[in-house]
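> forwarded from #structure-qc
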């Protein structure tokens, strides 16, 4: 069982920056792909970014590429999302996700979410 706790959300003006953090419990953090998703009001949850468990690969949605950066510190069991040049359309609840897929194993955990509001 992995517990995820996000922090760092808030209200920011367009063009500003925020850094989200997600602290994970457990001793197997480095084995998980760690991702960020978001859900805006009235919309489905969507992928934002992921850092693979090896730590050597990252992927981003087209809407945040070149503005957001995902990083992880396996020693601290924490994944971060640095968000720059924020836009009003980035307003959403941001969720941290931990995923471990191996043959015969599919583990998927979510945090409670943190609100990000970008004002125009």
């Amino acid at each position: 069982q992995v517990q995820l706790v996000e922090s760092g959300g808030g209200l920011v003006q367009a063009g500003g920056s925020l850094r989200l953090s997600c602290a994970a419990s457990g001793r197997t953090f480095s084995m998980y792909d760690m991702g960020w998703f978001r859900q805006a009001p009235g919309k489905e949850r969507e992928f934002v970014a992921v850092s693979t468990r090896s730590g050597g690969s990252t992927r981003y949605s087209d809407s945040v590429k070149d503005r957001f950066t995902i990083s992880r510190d396996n020693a601290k069991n924490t994944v971060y999302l640095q968000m720059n040049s924020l836009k009003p359309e980035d307003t959403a609840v941001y969720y941290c996700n931990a995923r471990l897929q191996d043959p015969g194993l599919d583990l998927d955990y979510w945090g409670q979410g943190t609100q990000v509001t970008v004002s125009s």
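QC bot note: Residues 9 and 116 are 5 Å apart (CA to CA). The chain has a mean pLDDT of 95.
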